[in-house]
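Ticket #4471: structure output looks truncated?

Reporter: J.K.
Steps to reproduce: submitted the chain below (428 residues) through the standard prediction queue, then opened the result file.
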Amino acid sequence: MHIKRSEELYSKAINLLPGGVDSPVRAFKSVGGIPLFMKEGKGSVLIDEDGNSFIDYCMSWGPMILGHGDRDVIDAVRETALHGTSFGTAHRFEVELAELVISMVPSIEKVRFVCSGTEATMSAIRLARGFTGREKFVKLDGCYHGHADFLLVAAGSGLADSGIPDSAGVTTGNAKDTLVVPYNDIDSLERIFEKEGKDIAALIMEPVPCNYGLIKPKEGYLQRVRDLCTQYGVILIFDEVITGFRLARGGAQEYYGVRPDLTTLGKIIGGGLPVGAYGGRKDIMSKIAPEGPVYQAGTLAGNPLAMAAGLASLKKTLSPGFYESLKTKTETLAERIKPALSKFSKVHFDFIESIFCFYFTDKKTITSVNDVRACDMKLFAKFHNAMLKRGIYLSPSGYEVGFFSSAHSDEDIDKTAAAIYESLEEIF
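Returned output as attached by the reporter:
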């Protein structure tokens, strides 16, 4: 595989951008080598600056549920851009997308559009604090909610403890009101609610964590979380930036039948353009300015290009059998690689709907973030490199998941299964 052009671009970028990238994981630090510079996406395929083609399972980290360069999405962006790229005013696309989102997501009665998932989670927590008059909130170890200071917090030394800063530049003051408990551990959550419940404004969680591997909720876990939040008057926030419109039309909350008070969204609702949103119960959302006292604003919030792209994307997910077809693609790959997984006991493949993950571990069930931390990431790095050589682009980190799109074909699945067989043979 020739990567001369990528090497040239990276040698320039390293002197212009921190680490040569605009988001850390793109730098390939955890898998080795240099980042590949992409120039084009077509359906299920990425093409780099050297002309190498890859079947893509990163899918821009999830938004491209229709694949790259979907014609309807491109047409919507082009037509909208011809009339202007930003107005700084109200416009019809944000109204139309709001109607569609509210009709699809069970818990959302009103929605506010922002420009990123981080902005959405940050705003939702501020809103919960403003609504309840409380200051503390709970996050779950193993869930990621963007890079706001008070969300970049790791678990303390105890089983359930105050958070400690997880990044340079995050002060202990920012972290002090963040309480961290393990995901899937209802006993720890019950203890922290008993101790701090009257001071907790919100609990924020990925209903299905997808940023620290793929961790499925234990049976009844999400409902018990819902019940505890109701009992203590705590606002339950589902971060569905990844799972929203991917596990089902209404996201994980529809999939599992558990309704949060607030939901944060991103990725798919922008059709590949920068976007975020948070929404929920009317009585809570009415506290947002200009209706209420909780301030939040954004110059490019509700950008017409992102709204038009989101509309085009979501409308196509409403077509009959869309999600069933996506799931079938993942199930087909899982079935094709079963013999390889049986042969090599230290690799585990798990999935839910169109999201999947490879783990290099002897464990066959992943239920906690500690299970993921125990995986062999050096072995994943070798696997990633072996797959890349065979024209398969996986997310360049063993802590990230993969995504199918409606553009992935049976031929793509055949090639991917063959590449997995060969790559596992090579690394083992």
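Triage note (M.O.): checked the attachment and the full token line is present. The radius of gyration is 21 Å.
Status: closed, working as intended.
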